[in-house]
Write a structure and sequence with these properties.
Elements (H helix, E strand, L loop, with lengths): L3 H31 L2 H27 L19 H28 L3 H43 L3
Helix pairs in contact: 1-2, 1-3, 2-4, 3-4
The protein binds magnesium ion.
The site of magnesium ion has 5 residues, from α1 and α2.
């Protein structure tokens, strides 16, 4: 059985994952409007992945005898500048999510809940990948410049 404190902390993270899903969906819509259909596709997939994180956390809370909650999702930003600015925002956001997950591990440790710590390590590892992927795309877009940007766009459309 999961403690109420830890259940509530994971529920907050579910809200954060859903906020991330909305952020990336907003970025997807932005890119679609700007004519970057590859980036738009990538962002939609990214958004779906964040929803999968929320589902996995909810499943886990329920499996441990807790109650999973769908809470109010705050409004996300809308409208960016260049693709580089958007992906820099993605990188910054993923670093923020990594901090949230780390704090969640701290709560699980304080609650002496080994199963939840084990469950959360998967997300700690996931964040290493998320940060590396976002940083890699920032670097790639920088190198591509104005002339190569549509090549990167079509590449990300393959995701
Ligand atoms: Mg996530």
């Amino acid at each position: 059985m999961i403690s109420e404190k830890l259940q509530n902390a994971i529920n907050e993270q579910i809200t954060a994952e859903m906020w991330s899903a909305n952020l990336y969906l907003a970025m997807s819509f932005y890119f679609e409007k700007e004519g970057f259909s590859g980036f738009a596709h990538w962002m939609k997939k990214q958004s779906q992945e964040e929803m999968e994180h929320a589902y996995a956390m909810a499943d886990y809370v329920i499996k441990r005898g807790g109650t999973a909650k769908v809470d109010k999702i705050d409004v996300v930003p809308n409208g960016w500048g260049t693709p580089l600015e958007v992906f820099e925002h993605v990188y910054k956001h993923e670093c923020h999510v990594s901090q949230l997950i780390d704090k969640l591990v701290d709560v699980a440790a304080a609650e002496k809940d080994k199963a939840t710590q084990d469950f959360l390590w998967g997300f700690v590892r996931e964040q290493v990948e998320e940060e590396a992927t976002a940083q890699g795309l920032v670097d790639k877009i920088k190198k591509a410049g104005d002339t190569g940007i549509f090549f990167v766009d079509s590449q990300l459309g393959q995701r």
